[in-house]
Amino acid sequence: MSMRATTPDRLAGRITGPVDEASGEPAVQLRLSGVTRKFNDVVAVDQIDLDVKRGEIFALLGPSGCGKSTSLRMIAGLEKIDQGSILMRDRALADAGRGTFLPSEKRNIAMVFQSYAVWPHMTVAQNVGFPLRMRRVKRAERRRRVEEILAVTGLEALADRPATLLSGGQQQRVALARALVYTPDLLLLDEPLSNLDAKLRIQMRREIRRLNRELGITMLFVTHDQDEALSLADRLAVMNKGKVEQVGRPMDLYEHPKTAFVRDFLGRLVVVEGVLAGDPARRRVLLGSGGERAGEVVGPDIPAELADGDAVGVYLRPEDVDIKPAGPGEPAPNQVAARVLSSVYLGDSFEYVLDIAGSNVLLSAPRRVVHQPGDAVVVEVDPQRAMVWPL
Amino acid sequence: MSGVLPPVAPDAVEPLPGPVRRLVKARRSSGSRVTGTVVLLLVAAVTVVPITLLLLNSLNVADPGDPAAYGLDNWRQAFANGAMWESAWNTLRLGVPRVLLGMVIATVISWLIARTDIPGGKVIEVFLWFSFFIPSLSMTLGWILLLDPANGVVNQVIRTVPGLGDITQGPLNIYSYWGIIWTHLTATTVPIMVILLVPAFRRMSRSMEEAAQISGASRLRTLVSITVPMMRPAIIAATLLSFVYSLKTFEIELLLGTPIGLNVYSTQIYNWLQSSPPQFGTATALGSVFIPILIMLAIMQRFAVRSRSYVTVGAHTYNDEPIRLGRIRRWVIAGVLWLYAVITVVLPLGAIVLGSFMRRFGFFQLTNPFTTEHWSALFHDNLFASSVRNTLVIGLIATLVGVLVYFVISFVIVRSELPTRGGVDVMAWLPAAVPGMLLGLGLLWVYLGTPLRTVLYGNLFGLIIALVISHMATGTQQLKAAILQVSPDLDRAARICGATPVRAYTYVLFPLLGPSVAAAGVLTFHSAVSDVSTVVLLSSNDSRPLSILLLEYSTSGVLEQASVLGVLISALTVGVALLSRALGGRRLRASKPGRRIRVTRGTPPSPLPAMKAGASSEDSSLTRTGS
């Protein structure tokens, strides 16, 4: 598992990707412009534009059927493109306008399939050496490079084992080694962590990041699992219904979603309804629907197009709020009055169902403070972390 | 080939969300419509045209090759002729009881072999597997030698029992209604059903039966109210398939029924065509009556296979504990099964071997009853030499062409995105519904009605084409199943690793499919070599294969020489069967991880994969992983 003491020459010196001189940004490795794919009348991928920078790990995240897998297959050359173009550096992999379409084997791309697609009739070494064989690399050189990459991926001991006798984690390692043995311009991964159990998942995530940093290979993966995307990717694009909703760093997307879809797709949210009040300079949200008032949130970021009196939703991340016993009198600013309906002991925390201004919300809280069903409590909100959206 | 890799993770079987289903559906038929139509028409051309021509030409009162003249005379004659009604009635009264009997026998045998601790169950399975491979013509010959009313060995033995009086005939007679049923049961119906049902019984999860027993059901009660109802779709499918299959073997009825005037539809067609002048029109009309019935039966069979709603398939059910029958009972039941296997397989085979060495079969009282002269006579027969050559040429070319055609068709059905895939599937499966006699008759019209008459009719080419079409359903089902087991990811991965399409297939797809393709080849060869009904109308003196020579010997009463030939053909087909077993065994060893070999040990590859693989191809090919 661990790196050998001396990093092989071939692998050294590529820790960082080249930098675009004009902007200081890393250069673009893969560019999708207006890429569209239709199956008969069904538009699977609709005019997407994406830039993947050299050396980064980029994720396409979205629910099943959002077109992410089709996008991956188009980049891999497994799927035609109907419109737009795919460029690798300056090389056109596919360009619908010009009718260019490079077959998979000419793209110098690598891919780790969700099923790993480790060939069952070959040994580990034969699997890993196959891309080199296809590139007509001499036998001795081939053996050297296979050994090298097996060492990097911690598979030395398994070189001669038939691929049928591998565990899931080992199969994925073989698939990775096979993909990295020939220095591809881009490594595609299809749901790279989804078939692994929780422990292996963490190990593999670290492994993929390590290989990315050490080998400097640009990686693009698709997943429907936000944890996988947030934890592994440098940047990600959330896709929905064949379109890209938002591109950015995991933190940007999680904390500043630009569309309702991204907001609802990433993480869990608690929504409290309210009404916008106050002057444009310093706005508050009065919480509670109907006549009941449960409190107010003062000074959150509020989209400019909203005006006084608009009905809004305050979106709170459960991890950003604290539940405290209610004090006497009116709740303070940025505190919301609530009542405990029920609680479940989870070991490391309690899970409460609270009634806030007539709506039920599920929140968990540390086990240091215990609230009983029926207790009056306040939910303390950090206005900087509350998101206000029109209802 | 299932499970070439250990399972990676249990797949969460959840219904796909709507947009995914739509996308998958759209993608699966996004291929070119033109190409799709062309492929569909090509396959339809070879499977639909002969049948359509048969139907059309039932209205053609001229002989094949003559200018067509349409009219209803054929139908009028056929319906006016009592023989037509009689043969239809005979087909029914021979077919239905034998299939019902076969169903009961085969279900019991399969259950005993697959689910209980009966000693030697595997060997009995292999016996039945051999009796499937031995051509039914050889088996029929064996039964004639054993149960001929005058000279049958069994009859002679029975007559030595004192007190039966001084009889020279009987008491058993193979040339009878029950004789035909018996021969069919032993040679076709039961072996096919057992081969189909044993794997189905094995796949059924033992926990279902255990749950019933824990709920208080006795073993018999469990069998009656849990096991059999759960297996019902499989049993119905196997029954229908065996019915369709047994309608194809016309040689049994020809040898046993025609001498006593008991004709079924196929022998009636044959006899009408053999009479002089040949009654083409009437025969065609009779054939046309049966086509819709058979297609309906075959469709029923297909649906029975399709409706796999029964939850017998479990992932880890193979290593279930067998059901204990009881220390003494298991040996008693095993004894009965062994007796059945010996009687139905060893006895007829022994009879033809014995017959081939007897001066006159059944005449043990001759001073020197044994001789090898029939063997040398056969080897000196010019017909024999040319027939051997014909059979080998037919067998080898039909195998090569057949496997290639079946492979291309299966590949299109499983892997392509052509919108007409489903249609191609149905077209390629159509020959399953058409008995060889009718296919032969249809092709006879095609051959004689085209300018290619000289190339096709009475020529080896014509026979090869007929055999390739006739075996198409089984061949494509088998290869479809094999291709389905190989995830497209495996060769896509090769492409992405830099392999051209040709190299991806050479290094990945073909090595993985090799054993299955070889097994399909073996079965194609077997069916080409042992077929009688498809080729009997199409062969001539120049293109006569061994099977037809055997038929001619058998019908002309030279039973001793026929026995020699029967032994030889059986040896050829059994040899081929053994080869396929060896291939199957090697496949298991090569592709199974050690701890899983136990799972399928000793199970012969099923020659009739239609049961397992006939199900839909859409659900799995996209999502199937390499494991």
Q: Considering DSSP H and I runs of 4 or more, what fraction of the residues of chain B is helical?
A: 55-70%
What number of structural domains do the residues of chain A give? 2
Structural class determined from secondary elements of chain A: alpha+beta
Helix and strand run of chain A: EEEHEEEEHHHEHEHEEHHEEEEEEEEEE
- Count of alpha/pi helices of chain A: 8
Description:
The complex is a heterodimer of chains A (391) and B (627). Chain A is α+β, with helices and mostly antiparallel strands. Chain A folds into 2 domains: 181 residues, 3-Layer(aba) Sandwich (Rossmann fold); 123 residues, RNA polymerase II/Efflux pump adaptor protein, barrel-sandwich hybrid domain (OB fold (Dihydrolipoamide Acetyltransferase, E2P), Beta Barrel). Chain A contains 8 helices and 21 strands. In chain A, strands 7-8-9-3-10-11 form a 6-stranded mixed beta sheet, sandwiched between helices. Chain A has a 5-stranded antiparallel beta sheet with strand order 2-1-4-5-6, with helices on one face. In chain A, a hairpin with a 7-residue loop joins strand 13 and strand 14. In chain A, helix 2 crosses helix 3. The longest helix of chain A has 18 residues. The radius of gyration of chain A is 26 Å and the shape is elongated. Chain A starts with 27 loop residues before the first strand and ends with a strand. The N terminus of chain A is likely disordered. Chain B has 627 residues and is an all-alpha fold. Chain B has a single domain, classed as Orthogonal Bundle (MetI-like fold), CATH 1.10.3720. In chain B, 70% of the residues lie in helices and 0% in strands. Chain B has 28 helices and no strands. In chain B, helix 10 packs antiparallel against helix 13. Chain B starts with 17 loop residues before the first helix and ends in a 6-residue tail after the last helix. The chains are: A alpha+beta (391), B mainly alpha (627). The interface between A and B is large, with 49 and 44 residues.
